[in-house]
Amino acid sequence: MPELPDVEHFRRFFGDHAEGRTVSAVWADPAIVRNATPQGLGRALKGRRFDDPDRHGKWLICWTDGPALLLHFGMTGDLVWSGDEPRRHRHDRLAVGFVEGGELRYRNMRKLGGVWLAHDPEEVAVVLGPLGPAALDLRRRQFAGLLARRRGGVKAALMDQTLVAGVGNIIADEVLWHARIHPRRRIEALPPWERDRLYTELRKVLRVSVERYHDLPGMRRWLSTVRGLPGAACPRCGTPLARTTAAGRTTYFCPTCQREGGPAP
Ligand SMILES: [Zn+2]
Predict the structure, then answer these.
(1) Distances in whole angstroms, Cα of residue 172 to Cα of each of 3, 11, 32, 167, 205
(2) Does pTM top 0.70 for this prediction?
(3) What is the mean pLDDT of each run of 10 residues along the chain (265 residues)?
(4) Does the active-site annotation cover 221?
(5) How far does the centroid of ligand 1 lie from the alpha carbon of residue 99, in Å?
């Protein structure tokens, strides 16, 4: 499922292929365009030139010199450039052609996620809904303030997009493993030094996932590399990983490094 690092990768990909280019044609599957018709989307974008796109949490916000195209990748979304794949695929739901040549496509096997049109920042805010600050831009004091007002499970908090935007299931497990915090511990039970470490590890995991995006499948001392593999052991201490449900999602953790009762005295 696309998480913040994936969407950041899409942001760069979109920018590499679309920034500074002028839209010549738009084709869209009506099932994926959420707040316009494919024709309306085409009318709004044709002749417009794309800027460098923004990301907020899991949203990609692609401003032109007129309206913005908003993309959400759901569980299976992807971007494809016609130079890499000349032929359209049956799961391509949106194709944007450019005057300068080439076509950028939004591909989604399932129809979760989608494509929205927004004419100004207020419309963008309405489509995105209530979102917390972007996880990558979060400052330490801001994070401490958010946690101070929050009760309940720490994993649920990390994944709550209205608290912090951009952390999904896999990143949440990765962060908690690095911070050595059990995913079901309650925020109000975390002492200040653990909240501080949570922030440090959140920043580190997000930064590394974005900067080393293509290296992630082989990362050592990284939970996601072994997560879900049969017989997987903690990359730090070798204890077999445990699986549970936290925040309604399948969760992996190390029962030695991440003790449910908190760190050993
Ligand atoms: Zn361990």
Answers:
(1) 10, 21, 28, 6, 9
(2) yes
(3) 85 98 97 95 98 92 98 92 96 97 95 92 94 91 96 96 92 97 96 97 94 87 93 96 94 96 82
(4) no
(5) 54
